[in-house]
Amino acid sequence: MILCDVGNTSYHFLDGDVSYKKDVKNFDPKSVKERVCFISVNAGVKEALKELTNWIDLSDFVDKNQYYETMGVDRIFAVEAVLNAIIVDAGSAITVDVVQNGKFMGGFIYPGVNAMSATYANISPALAYSFNFECDLDIMPKNSQDAISYGFLKPLHCEVTSRNLPIILTGGDARKFKKIFKEAKVDETLIFSGMKKIIKKANVC
User: Fold this and answer.
1) Which residue in 5, 74, 97, 187 is the catalytic one?
2) Which of 71, 135, 130 is CA-nearest to residue 104?
3) In the annotation, is 173 catalytic?
4) By C-alpha distance, which of 161, 113, 168 is closest to 137?
5) pLDDT means over runs of 10, the chain (205 residues)
């Protein structure tokens, strides 16, 4: 069974234990002859895949009544993977979702590392620093790099830890955030776990 999480720029495949990516612009999904269970946040790719009978859209098998209408399918499948946790998906945007007893309790969206870094640089070239994920969030900073790092990281850290739930980090910047969420678990295949759970529940693929 092949799983695929389609993003805006890449197809992320999981074939058994092997994970790999293909560029959206260059990859032809018709080249895959095996059955593929997928989700997609890329509307164009999703529409194109409707023509391929061996590509099965798992979003059709989720109880969407548990979620709000515009919630991203990648967030939904991450939520489906856990019972009790707060999920921090650190990608181009940072999404934070609370799950208790297998139920989605709500969440919020925060600018990603690159987006927030660009915001500071747009304010002034003097603020064009990279974030210091090792700055001490328990004391007020006394230098510019730590000041912007604190301003970005402290509110997020406070909100996430206030929930008193296990923290799961996923997404491309997950390991950076591990430095401030020291007790968190990094799970780079969380969405695939949610996909497997839906496959088993719906008996598809």
Assistant:
1) 74
2) 71
3) no
4) 161
5) 93 94 96 96 95 96 93 96 97 95 96 96 96 97 97 97 97 96 96 96 85
